[in-house]
Each structure stands twice: as structure tokens, then as C-alpha cells.
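Researcher: Here's a chain I'd like modeled. Treat it as a single chain, no partners, no ligands.
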Amino acid sequence: LAFCRCRSLAKIDIPKSVSVINRMAFGSCESLENITLPDGVTVLSTDVFSNCVSLKELILPESIETIESSAIWGCDNIKSISVPAKTTFIDENAFINKCLESVIVDEENKYYKSVDGVLFNKEMTKLITYPVSKKAEEYTVPDSVKTICNLENKYMKTLVLPEGVEVIGYGALDSSPNLRELNIPASVIDIGNVCGNYFEKI
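Model: Modeled as a single isolated chain. C-alpha cells:
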């Protein structure tokens, strides 16, 4: 919690000696606009930049290996995030952000990939993050996907799930107020509270 709630902090340069940025280290630094992460940082911990509402860009160094839950939650000005080649673990809820439009993964990453701004595991059996603000009214989940983690979106009206999907995570479509058409395939064996407060609109 080193700088947590330092609401007047606008810029910080982290020294090269730092390898791990701990939980909520910069949480609720509402004026933070610029932060430089040096090559050598390997872990972004839970809520590390949560509610940094003024932060418009976060460039992850090539050294990043782990990105934990809610790393950029509430960073409502970050529209895109790029995942380096060395990243081996991304929490399913790492990129929950209501203004995120795309997640881009380095093509040399052995564990993750992105297709049209959507984050998958490398084998594309798990859809990890469909950005909340990706501007598309219709989306067809790839046939290879077995598990869906986060598919909530502001603009989506029609969602096509292929036969073969087995798991739909809790709240996977929770913030999808415009969703009007959804068919759950017979292959699904585990389903959470998929649509939360918006279920009655489908």
C-alpha cells in the first residue's frame, strides 16, 4: 500500500531495482497520469493500479511475467493494453475495465494470444477477456473455445456460442445491457450467474 490513495500523485518513475509491485501499491492514485515501469518488473499484483482514473496509458515492460486480478480495474481512461512475450500468467479478472477496447498480445508469447482485440489462452480453448468497450454489436465465439471467463460488453446485441462450450464463468456477461439474443448450447455443463442483473432482458 506504499502510495495507495496518494490522490495528488501525478507522475512516478520506478527504479530498475524493483521486480514486484505489490497489491494496491498505486490504488486510488486519482491524479496519476504517467508511470514508467522499468524492464525488470516481473509481477503486477492485485489491484496495483485500481481506480487510477487519470491514467491513460500503461506500457508493460518485456519483463512482465505475472498480471494478477484487477490490475487495471477502474482505470477508465485506458483503452488498450499490450501483453509482452514473456508473460506466463494473466488472472481471468486482470483486465476488467469498463473503457477497455482491446487486448493485444505479442505474437511470440507462448501462453496467450489475441484475436481482434480479444484475449485467449494460446490454444484458444479459453476466452479470457472480451473488452467491455469493444465496439461490435455481434460476436461469434470461436469453435475451439471450451471455457468462457469474461464476455461482458456495452455494445453487444447478439452473441453466438458454438456447440462445444462447456463452462461459462460466473458473471461472464454481467455488464451487457444491450444483449438481446443468446442461446446456451447443450454442451454446457457448468454455468454461473451468467448475466447477473441483465438476465431478464434476454
